[in-house]
Amino acid sequence: GKKVDVDDLIDAAEVARLAGFRSPTAVSVYLSRGVLPPPVVDRGANRVRLWLRQDIQRWVKERSKRP
């Protein structure tokens, strides 16, 4: 598997904050639509999901470039 620094892992609340979403619930909506980068840790429904901070920061930056 892919090795990551645990300090680079973020949860849905931090994803929501970085993306400017009103709540972490929006993360699930974007994820289910295939818009958000997939989490690097996904323990299944109603369980922990963790993303790499860099992946989300890159996604936010790319999204902000769109008209």
Structural write-up:
The protein is of the alpha+beta class. The protein is built from three helices and three strands; from the N terminus they run E-H-H-E-E-H. The longest helix is centred in the C-terminal third of the chain and has 13 residues, at 53-65. The chain is globular, with a radius of gyration of 12 Å.
Compact overview of the structure:
By secondary structure, the protein is an alpha+beta fold. The protein is 43% helix and 12% strand.
Count of β-strands: 3
Q: Could you say which overall geometry the principal axes of the C-alpha atoms support?
A: globular
Q: Give helix % range.
A: 40-55%
Overall pLDDT: 91
Low-confidence stretches: none
Structural class of the secondary structure composition? alpha+beta
What is the chain-wise order of helices and strands?
Answer: EHHEEH
Question: What are the SSEs and their pairings?
Answer:
Blueprint: E1 9-10, H1 12-19, H2 25-32, E2 41-42, E3 49-52, H3 53-65
Antiparallel strand pairs: 1-3, 2-3
Helix pairs in contact: 1-2
What are the salient characteristics of this protein?
alpha+beta, about 70 residues, about 45% helix
